[in-house]
Design brief:
CATH topology: Rossmann fold
Order of helices and strands: EHEHEHHEHEE
Helix content: 25-40%
Low-confidence stretches: none
Number of domains: 1
Structural class: alpha/beta
Shape: globular
Radius of gyration: 16 Å
Largest sheet: 6 strands, mixed
CATH architecture: 3-Layer(aba) Sandwich
Length: about 190
């Protein structure tokens, strides 16, 4: 006999950004949605979307529209990428070298006027819980947001920094009725 099935949360990282060599977290940059075949393959793999939540970032909205042109999503501010504060819009070459840091120290590090990965996890946790209350959902968000969800599932936030989350990849989580997250798959590509 099996118990109640967990709520399925399908997290999709947005399409690759049109990079300009500058740091972006909260900076609203465009996604490159030119690979129609890849979006068709993703749509075929996922089927109809049902309920879709997404970061308000333009790159997430563009990704949603490229996968499911007729779907309407609901923006969720908590799913924005980590705020890089004073690092936003700086050339990558000009970002400070933090030297060797443990994952825990890196997760706790907060750029000036920004947020740490730990802060991001704290922001994402209630939004994931809320998303699961309405049943299964698709969430289109950012690498940091998806790592935060994985860290919450692992109950080891800093450990999630070890995950690479590719553009247009799928991460599948289940949420049990008690709020426990389980990891089903990470970084699937169509």
């Amino acid at each position: 006999m099996t118990g109640p099935q967990p709520t399925e949360l399908t997290l999709i990282r947005h399409a690759p950004v049109k990079s300009d060599g500058r740091a972006y977290g909260r900076r609203d940059v465009d996604a490159d949605c030119s690979d129609a075949a890849r979006f068709e393959a993703m749509r075929a793999r996922l089927g109809p979307p049902g309920r879709v939540l997404h970061s308000p970032a333009r790159r997430c909205v563009q990704t949603l529209q490229a996968i499911w042109p007729d779907a309407a999503g609901t923006p969720e501010a908590a799913f924005w990428e980590q705020d890089l504060g004073d690092w936003e819009d700086r050339p990558y070459a000009d970002l400070p070298d933090l030297g060797p840091l443990s994952r825990a120290a890196l997760a706790a590090y907060r750029p000036e006027n920004g947020e740490s990965f730990d802060d991001l996890c704290a922001r994402v946790a209630p939004a994931l819980n809320s998303a699961s209350q309405g049943g299964s959902a698709v969430i289109i968000a950012h690498a940091g947001t998806i790592r935060a969800a994985l860290g919450l599932a692992l109950e080891a936030q800093a450990a999630a920094l070890a995950f690479e989350i590719a553009p247009l990849s799928i991460t599948r989580l289940g949420m049990l009725s008690d709020g426990t997250l389980i990891i089903r798959s990470v970084n699937e590509t169509a």
